[in-house]
Design a protein that fits this description.
By secondary structure, the protein is of the alpha/beta class. It has 2 domains: 122 residues, 3-Layer(aba) Sandwich (Rossmann fold), CATH 3.40.50; 96 residues, Winged helix-like DNA-binding domain superfamily/Winged helix DNA-binding domain (Arc Repressor Mutant, subunit A, Orthogonal Bundle), CATH 1.10.10. It contains 8 helices and 12 strands. The strands form 3 sheets. The protein has a 5-stranded parallel beta sheet, sandwiched between helices. The protein has a 4-stranded antiparallel beta sheet with strand order 6-7-8-9, covered by helices on one side. It is globular.
């Protein structure tokens, strides 16, 4: 299955392992993606700034500037999805990457089918953010407004910057306000496959959303934790 749409999405691949980078780039190119490769973290920041791609694939261990710092540096100006490559079973790398603004991660050794599935899912979300077709769909809960047509989040009228995955998670919860939503449901909605019971990415995204929404986890106004089950968006839909 190749790239959908008239134009081929562009990807910046930041990976200093030449053999792995070649393998990933060839596989992506065979699916119709336009790939630019970079091995140095600092140069990667400038490349992303000068020519923002549709998606960034970012290794953690890089010369010049590690992947965590690259993610931290580009997030203020780059709104597209970032997919990080992490050491297998290294929860700290995964969690830190997500907390710094990455949208998803793939563990090494990289399995091409898994990588392609994650890339497609992230690009589908990103492309839906720019379509703007159809009637506006908006949910307001107290001071919080979530607009699906603009992919916009407002808190007391103030725009809140969220990543594509954070928006999708927030929208999924807001559209089910007053209902308990399980981690399995959230995981399926975001990744389109079953939750393995171990992945902590949903919890990290919720933590980031609470910070951005100034939602005290000890007494949350918006996103409440239902222990052992999942999360609940407080308030009623208008």
């Amino acid at each position: 299955m190749g790239v959908e749409g008239a134009s081929n999405p562009s990807i910046v691949l930041v990976e200093d392992d030449v053999g792995l980078a070649e393998l990933i780039a060839e596989r992506l190119a065979s699916e119709g993606y336009r790939v630019q490769r970079e091995v140095d973290g600092r140069r990667a920041v400038e490349l992303i700034r000068a020519s923002p791609p549709d998606l960034v694939i970012l290794d953690i261990m890089l010369p010049g500037m590690d992947g965590f710092q690259v993610c931290r540096e580009v997030r203020p100006f780059y709104r597209g999805p970032i997919l990080i490559l992490t050491a297998r079973d290294d929860d700290l790398d995964q969690i830190l990457g997500l907390e710094l603004g990455a949208d998803d991660y793939v563990a090494k050794p990289v399995r091409p089918r898994v990588l392609l599935a994650r890339v497609r899912a992230l690009l589908r979300r990103a492309m839906s953010a720019t379509r703007g077709a159809g009637e506006p769909t908006r949910i307001e809960i107290g001071a919080l407004a979530v607009d699906a047509s603009r992919r916009e989040v407002l808190l007391a009228g103030r725009p809140i910057s969220v990543t594509t995955v954070e928006f999708d998670l927030l929208w999924h919860l807001a559209s089910r306000a007053g209902q308990v939503v399980s981690r399995q449901d959230l995981y399926q909605a975001l990744y389109h496959y079953d939750y393995d019971g171990l992945d902590r990415s949903i919890d990290v995204y919720v933590s980031r959303l609470r910070q951005k929404l100034e939602d005290d986890p000890a007494s949350p106004e918006f996103i409440k934790t239902v222990r052992g089950v999942g999360y609940l968006m407080a308030g009623a839909r208008p």
